[in-house]
Amino acid sequence: MNGTRFPYPNTIGTNAVYQNMGNANYNSLQTSLKRTAGRFTFLASYTYGKSLDWTSSIQEQVNPFDFRKEYAISAFDLKHNFDFSYNYELPFDKLFHAANRLTRGWAISGVTRCATGLPVPFQSFGDNALVQVQNNGVNSVSIDLPNYNPSLGSLNVNHNPRKNPLAFNTKLFSPNSPGTFGNSSRRFFYGPGIDNYDMALRKTTSITESASLEFRFEMFNTFNHAQFDGAASVDGNRDDATFGKS
Q1: Does this model's pTM top 0.85?
Q2: Is the backbone of residue 34 left (phi > 0), alpha (psi -120 to 50) or beta?
Q3: Rounded to an integer, what is the distance from CA 51 to the centroid of its chain?
Q4: By C-alpha distance, which of 120, 186, 175 is closest to 147?
Q5: Are 33 and 43 within 8 A, CB to CB?
């Protein structure tokens, strides 16, 4: 940040020391059900979990003087995740009362997934905290966090950018003052979730005892349902035109 290290210029170099350290925990409830009933087979699984850590990448170091203050939701956390896969052998042989190569081997299958969204990250590369924020890609060092003031109103998380381009109420956030660490958590709410349906229609024809021919017609995102991304890389600087936008 220009002007915060007077009389020293911003061209002064640094030496970085990296340590393999951190604290993380994951707790979850996992359940699955598999069932075969005649021509119908399905597998359903559901996970309810939460992952918390000090940092999810090298870039997310915020306060080098107190790592415990960085404890927050992991970047990859999914609170709810439901998967349903199925296969149904179509009874054309019974409908047409003819069990032959033309009527046998038809099936419809698919995978349905419904999950909550990923956490929305907060970060700023302005180096207001004066800890030498370096944004150089995958090896970025440290980030700034904005100040969060919930007394100014509701967060109003919005998961549909068609209604409003803002993913949340940006008025609750302000840049941290020079020489201070923002009080916002790295992550504390989630972006839009996933609601996806993939399906396939297939026909398997036996040629010999060891050979068969399969025809498949596959549809991904069958119902053409929009899957919105979260407010990625939210900048703590309110002057940034992308702040809070999906």
Answers
A1: no
A2: beta
A3: 12
A4: 175
A5: yes
